[in-house]
Amino acid sequence: MTQHKVAVVGCGSMSNTWLDYVQQRDDATVVALVDIFEESARAMADRRGLDVPIFTDLSQALAATEANLVFDITIPDSHKQVVTTALKAGCHVFGEKPMGGSMADAREMLDVAKVSGKRYSVMQNRRYLKQIRAVRTAVEHGAIGQVGALYADFFLGPHFGGFRDAMENPLILDMAIHTFDQARLISGANPVSVYCQEFNPPGSWYQGNASAICIFEMNDGSVFCYRGSWCAEGFPTSWESDWRITGSQGTIRWDGSAIPVCEVVDVDSEPAELLRRHRQVELPVMWRGREGHWGCLDEMFDALGEQRPAETDCTDNIYSVAMVFAAIESAKTGRKVYLQDFA
Question: Residue 341's pLDDT is what?
Fold first, then answer.
């Protein structure tokens, strides 16, 4: 059994989830904590009782330890430096989303990963929920026929404060990548083009655009329509969005929390009827994996052991990142943007 020796980069609150995960694995051990603020790393080590060396520089940490896996839990603008440094040093990398702070950064990270021969996998924890897996399975097995469109509504009004309030594109850049990635999972398709209208509605407490409508064309001929706002007061959706997937033989509805429901054409109804009869059923939830971050990390470790790309390997996740930056480009230019220019 391969022993994974982990250097954790970024010792903010998010790293607790990752460290909790490592501590329950027999084949993984933390060998270093790295943070530009040494006091943050020391505080984390003290809180968790970790007797490991502390570093402010990743290169020094990798040179001084036998780390072969890096957890990148830093801010997006730091991802490129952390990931490329680790890959070039011969380490695999598991990192927080998004891949990078720009599309150029994401492309460079992908290129370095390919040359290095090491794996770089991205945390997309919202793929790992039993309900969305039920939706994916139903679509994959043709429960509603050929998919024509996916619709996702995301309306919440969290008052975070801090850096999000000052971001230029808080909704799309910081949050919508989850929903965009979920659309790719559900449909099994990749984006071809996008038109996006971004705006900041009255009453918004964000400096940047906190609302957006995006229309993506997918490579299977379907359309994905996203409507979202991060400053919507009243009638909130779930964090997973409110979904409607329409196909040639029916529709799937999922509110992001309850069991998904499928309504399909009754095979005994007559095609000539003005309104054909339908039957409604709950989708069977068969997936038994763990949910959230731990489910995604399980898949990443399994992929390393089986010497294959993880489901969220950078070679695949680049398409979700491209959806984000292409949508932002469309909003800025007021035109449809083709994804071949991004991924």
Answer: 73
